[in-house]
């Protein structure tokens, strides 16, 4: 597959190398995909209410959830090359009640995050070997 792109910038060549420019584009694309995931799977910005204050509260609550979820991704999933944020999100949603239950207990929260990391590693290793299918 061949990919062609035209990058236009006002930056001087001494300030922005081609490598830096391509890195900026890669980061922008990753950022766009992350927000697309949040909007589609977490229903960010979706509300059935007509009350503007309720809509704002729902938006803030959803943003808080996706920030916590992303933090879990960064601590337990990000280093796995075969990672799938969608499948990771599914696993975190399945364990949301456990996560909420240990929010005031740092030891239980730490243990649950370790368990998440282990499940991420085991699940993706088995998936890569063709022995496991995420539901």
Shape: extended
Helix content: 55-70%
How many strand segments?
A: 0
SS-derived structural category: mainly alpha
Give the distance, in angstroms, between the N- and C-terminal Cα atoms. 31 Å
Q: Figure out the total of helices.
A: 5
Q: What value does the average pLDDT take?
A: 81
Proportion of residues in extended strands: under 5%
Kindly provide the radius of gyration, computed on alpha-carbon positions and rounded to a whole number of angstroms: 19 Å
What is the chain-wise order of helices and strands?
Answer: HHHHH
Q: Oligomerization state of this entry?
A: single chain
Major sheet details: none
> Low-confidence spans: pLDDT under 50, at least 5 residues?
none
Core attributes:
135 residues; mainly alpha; 65% helix
Structure description:
This protein is mainly alpha-helical and 135 residues long. The protein has a domain at 42-128. The protein has five helices and no strands. The longest helix is centred in the middle third of the chain and has 25 residues, at 52-76. The model has no long low-confidence stretch (mean pLDDT 81).
